[in-house]
Amino acid sequence: MDKVHNINIKNKTVILRCDFNVPIENGQILDDSKIVKSLKTIDYLQDSNCKIILMSHLGRVKKEEDIIKHTLKPVADYLSKIYKEKFSFIDNCRSSELTLKAKNLNPKDILLLENTRHQDFPEKLESGNNKELAEYWASLGDVFCLDAFGSAHRAHASTAGIAKFIPSCIGFLIEEELENLKLLTHNPEHPFTVIMGGAKVDDKIALMRSLLPMCDYLLVTGGIANTFLKVLGFNVGSSLASNDSIILNEVKSLLLEYKNKIILPIDVIVTNNYDKFYIRTSSVNNLDVNDIIYDVGVKTLEKFALAINKSKIIFVNGTCGLYEDVRFSNGTKECFKLLANSGAKIIVGGGDSVSAVKKFGYQNKFHYLSSGGGATLDYIVDGKLDALVELERGMEIETLDV
User: What are the residues whose beta carbons fall under 8 Å from the beta carbon of 71, sequence distance 6 or more?
Assistant: First the structure.
């Protein structure tokens, strides 16, 4: 797969697909980390005297009001402060005005298009990888560079379709992601531990099935631990747990096959179904039918610490509990503290876990925070991403002598 710094892009018009799908509230960006991660590739293109056309999606556009709601204007305001007069924004992503504006760019100019998913209403042209739309976008430039790792698991018109029409490559962010995630998928150091949390076990079965043969320990926590406890015959009260017979059988299979690797909570923090202000710590052997599990207890953390402190590399996906609520944040905070003090390489992937790391101030304590949610998990499961597969099939670019 061609990398942006190994190909001849000097003086070319480059279409750069970024991931600017950032949280925005009242026009204010709440977390700019995805934008910051894109700057290295943008700066490299500017230094190569390129004309730069930026593309990104933002949210889902299913109805007309979503077009107004999901606008990249706040991202444009952010970027304009960095690149000043070299930066401009156009309030659409397909028009004769855009075609003319792209044609008239000067070297080092940066043009940000409006949300690509505006093309999903009334028909799903973007997410449906519409050929005509992809061909139009490709016509705006000479080279396509994909640097939106968080969207690379989706073969959309703006992530994969363009690659069928013009030479394509990956940017620095995707290159960085693949290199760091290979620490987990290509002969990881041992002991190798996985911490798996989150709400629904259904979403994590494939990931666990993929990682269990490779890892030494799987610490199961958060909402997904409830289903494991349920399969073992524990009463999990009114807690979130799967009732799907296929999922339950799959969990049972994992417990039987990997009983020496899977580590489950032994005590939990619960509230009562009838009194949300009633909070207690309970052994998993002693839960009431009306109890709802929202966090892990101190004894569970002590048990987890035994595996964490032996480990050379640890992958974290998910949290120990409802960390957004201060009453149920201790398990996640203390787990991060254990990780930071372990000496292991910590790689964090998945939206909630990365958000929690930042919330509790551990973003500079761990080896790598992946910018992808579903993309990170998909890559770990099968080692490929749909958009990257399309880039591999795309047109070749003249390489540099390096």
Answer: 58, 91, 114, 115
List, in order of start, the domains of the chain with CATH numbers.
4-170 (3.40.50.1260), 178-382 (3.40.50.1260)
Give the per-residue pLDDT at 402.
43
Determine the Cα–Cα distance for residues 149 and 391; give it in Å rounded to an integer. Answer: 13
pTM for this one? 0.88
d(CA 170, CA 176): 10
The token pair at 339 is: 């990780």
Q: Are 56 and 17 in contact (CB under 8 A)?
A: yes
pLDDT in tens, 140-152: 999 999 999 999 9
Contact 49, 13 (CB under 8 A): no
CA angle 206, 211, 216 (to 5 degrees): 145
- What is the phi/psi pair of residue 362, to 5°? -105, 15
What b/e string do you get for 220-249 counting C-beta neighbours within 10 Å, with b at 16 or more? bbbbbbbbbbbbeebebbbbbbbeeeebbe
pLDDT over 90, % of the chain: 84
Residue in the block written with tokens 């593309």: 55
Residues ≥6 apart with Cβ < 8 Å to 309 = 338, 342
